[in-house]
Design brief:
This protein is mostly beta strands. It is built from 4 helices and 19 strands. It has 2 domains: 350 residues, no CATH class; 59 residues, no CATH class. 47% of the residues are buried. It comes from Streptomyces heilongjiangensis.
């Protein structure tokens, strides 16, 4: 497995020098992609107005990996919402408020602003936004479950999840069915709050899902995001984190399994804008089949005011067959030397036949040995979910995916 990493501990602006990250990988060959700075990734400043963003042509830094021709018009304004686009069902424990609000509601947009044309289009085109509020000092013992089911049409959506001070909650957002969906999701954490979000993308084969996730983490608050992506023709998610006060912590975990012909893209940005906050990013993916394409962009910006920052990000990819491609680009931009630590790593490799041989030599059949190796690769992320039925479903889904491969390294 090829790996690149960098762990600056002093005053540094990363992006020049140091070991390069593993960039674009296809089975049998590895090419290195140059790092680019955080600020150069966007062709236009954040805005709620679609007109402020040019129609992308695919040569922009933030769109160069994305197959625009497969976005079904979400990027150029030709996509139009249809009445049969989406069904959303929310199950919330007692004490939680669930509302549908208009665009003029003051709670919308607090966590972040759209950073590309599709995100702005999603914000401009939804009819009603969902707002889920957990009152201060409320500790939920059961998850909030949001079931998002596509019914074959096109939809634009926006969801806000807000926790009051010292509240604690787990939220599961489950995407299934077939849809063309552009969405925004905002997480707003009050001081001392704790929020875990599990977002599952288990779409049918033809679905297109483009979304920006914004998290605003309050003073001494803790935010954990677990993104699980399996289905869909094109899935492009953009998680972003900023901090509203010192002492905030953010953990971003991701697991994706990319099959033949699928495009799965995860673009992350953590902005350390206040002192003494932490972030940890771990995303892992497995790929199999011709045309399987996974993209991971991990950006961390440590602003000059963010002294005492402690951050690390890692992406690992396991290529199970020929014909799959990975683009992995980590980037750190550091504007102050007064930090606790900052580092990143990117690794991509083929399926380890030695591990398979070791297990088979001890009497384990080949298919079961292969399943154990891949489960072991994902084990630490599965444990982060913390919702038993989702964990079990995930393991079953991994097994289903592996059944489609005829043999190791093929």
């Amino acid at each position: 497995m090829a790996e690149a990493q960098n762990s600056p501990k002093s005053s540094t602006s990363l992006g020049q020098g140091g070991p390069p990250p593993v960039g674009s990988t296809t089975a049998g060959s590895i090419a290195v992609a140059a790092e680019s700075t955080v600020v150069s990734r966007m062709s236009a400043p954040p805005s709620f107005d679609v007109a402020d963003f040019p129609v992308p042509h695919g040569r922009e830094e933030e769109w160069r990996f994305t197959p625009l021709e497969r976005l079904r018009g979400l990027h150029d304004g030709t996509a139009v919402a249809t009445g049969d686009g989406l069904k959303v069902d929310v199950q919330a424990p007692e004490g939680v408020t669930v509302e549908a609000v208009g665009r003029d509601d003051a709670r919308l947009g607090k966590a972040g602003t759209p950073v590309d044309r599709i995100a702005a289009q999603a914000y401009s085109a939804f009819e009603k936004a969902g707002v889920i509020t957990v009152p201060k000092e409320t500790v939920l013992t059961e998850p909030i479950r949001i079931a998002v089911h596509g019914e074959g049409g096109t939809a634009f959506a926006h969801q806000v999840i807000e926790l009051g001070a010292f509240a604690e909650a787990v939220v599961v957002i489950d995407h299934t069915g077939d849809a063309v969906l552009a969405a925004g999701v905002d997480y707003v954490l009050g001081d001392g709050a704790k929020l875990t979000v599990v977002s599952v993308q288990d779409w049918d084969d033809k679905a297109v899902h483009i979304a920006q996730h914004n998290a605003l983490v309050g003073r001494d608050a803790s935010f954990k995001s677990v993104v699980v992506t399996f289905g869909g023709d094109v899935v492009r998610l953009h998680p972003r984190v900023t901090y509203a006060g010192p002492g905030g912590e953010a953990e971003l975990f991701g697991l994706y399994f990319t099959d033949a012909g699928q495009h799965q893209e995860h673009r992350l940005l953590v902005t350390h804008n206040v002192p003494h906050c932490k972030s940890n990013v771990v995303y892992k993916g497995a790929l199999q089949g011709d045309g399987a394409h996974a993209v991971w962009i991990g950006d961390v910006l440590i602003e000059a005011a963010a002294e005492g920052t402690d951050t690390y990000e890692m992406n690992r990819n396991l290529v199970l067959t020929d014909g799959a491609r990975v683009d992995s680009v980590p980037n750190l931009e550091i504007e102050t030397g007064e930090i606790v630590g900052a580092g990143h790593a990117s690794a991509t490799g083929r399926f380890d036949d030695e591990q398979l041989f070791y297990l088979m030599a001890r009497g384990i059949p080949a298919e079961e040995a292969r399943r154990l190796v891949v489960r072991g690769f994902f084990a630490e992320l599965v444990q982060q979910i913390g919702v038993d039925d989702i964990e079990q479903r995930l393991l079953e889904k991994i097994d289903e995916e592996l059944e489609t491969v005829s043999g190791p390294g093929r």
